[in-house]
Every structure is written in structure tokens, then in C-alpha cells.
Amino acid sequence: MAKASATRRLGESPDIAAWMTLYGARLRRYFARRAAREDVDDLVQEVFLSLHQAHAPPPILDVERYLYTVARHALIDMRRNRAVRRWAQHDALDDVPEPSSDLSPERILVGRQDYARAIKAVRDLPPRARAAFQLHRFEELTYAAIAQRMGISRESVKELLHRAALRVHAAMRPDP
Q1: What is the pLDDT of residue 157?
Q2: Assigned domain for 101 exists
Q3: Among the four residues 33, 43, 56, 127, which has the most C-beta atoms within 10 Å?
Q4: Quick check: is 96 in a domain?
């Protein structure tokens, strides 16, 4: 008898208690596969609350399909609301303090010296290592593209870039 009253058309007065008994466990399993455990009961409640508040003029013939459609929409709404809340928690760009402009003459000089050391380090690399380094760092080519262009294996490119990086890094260390 509960099933007969539970499968009534939605346009008629629904027996929410019977529907909760009949479909509650299935909806919990549905949400358990798609949402966090702590959200399952809230989502099931949302479905039955929507069902209770529904005043659809034409009767809905397939209550189960309707329930799962409402369930899918409840899940989508929950995800959207969370995304909006996360977005709202971010600071606006106007609230971010301006970076300090400590471009003192000393800082500018140090920057120029670092730049000159980096250029010298790249120029002092052996020719093949320099070519591989420039293709990778400045032209942003992949190892495979560099290997093809230079006519060597990818492993050779990897080794050349490793050696070049070590030399450039060593050259960039401040003088003792």
C-alpha cells in the first residue's frame, strides 16, 4: 500500500513520508557516490524539501525520474554555491597592497651585475651546450625538438642541458 501511495502522480497531493521511505536510501547511495559524506543528508533533505514545495501544474507520471532529476539539480546547486563562496573568499586586486618600489641605486646595480653574470655564463658554455640551452630556455623547445634540430638523441639533449644548468648556476653564485 505504501508503494501505491508513493507512486502517485506529483500533481496530486504527494505522500512525502512514503516517498522518503521508498526512495530515501537510494538517494543517499546516489549522493554518497557523488558528494562528500557530510553533505549526503543535506542533499537528500533538499530533494524532499523541493518535492514538498513543488506545485507543478501538470502531474508528473514518473516520480522516480523526477526525484533523480531534482537530486542532480541539488548536487549542481551545492557545487555552484561552494564555488561562489570560494571565489568570494579571495581578495580583490584592489585590496592587495602595492609592491614596494625599493629600486634604490644599489638594488639596480646588483640587478645589472646579476644580469651580466648570467649572460657571461651562457656565452661561456661549450657551443653545443649553449645551443641546447638557448633552444630550451629562450625558444622554449622540447627535448625532442632540440634533439631533432641538433641531430642528437633526447638523452644527449638532457645531458647537455643538465651540464649547462650546473655551469650557469655555479656562475650565478655570489663571489665569496
Answers
A1: 93
A2: no
A3: 43
A4: no
Q: Are residues 124 and 83 in the same domain?
A: no
Domain boundary among 72, 89, 106: 89
Burial degree of 102 (CB within 10 A; 0-12, 13-18, 19+): exposed
Residues of the chain predicted below pLDDT 70:
1-15, 54-60, 88-101, 174-176
The answer, as to whether pTM is greater than 0.70, is no
All residues at 6 or more sequence positions from 125 whose CB lies less than 8 Å from its CB, including other chains: 133, 164, 167, 168
Q: pLDDT value at position 132?
A: 92
Return the pLDDT at 5. Answer: 43
Please check whether residues 14 and 85 belong to one and the same domain: yes
pLDDT for 162: 92
CA distance 159 to 94: 46
Do 67 and 47 form a contact (C-beta atoms < 8 A)? yes
Rounded CA-CA distance 137/121 in Å is 14
pLDDT (0 to 100) of residue 6: 46
CATH of the domain at 14: 1.10.1740
Domain ranges, residue 137: 117-172
Please check whether residue 103 lies inside any domain of the structure. Answer: no
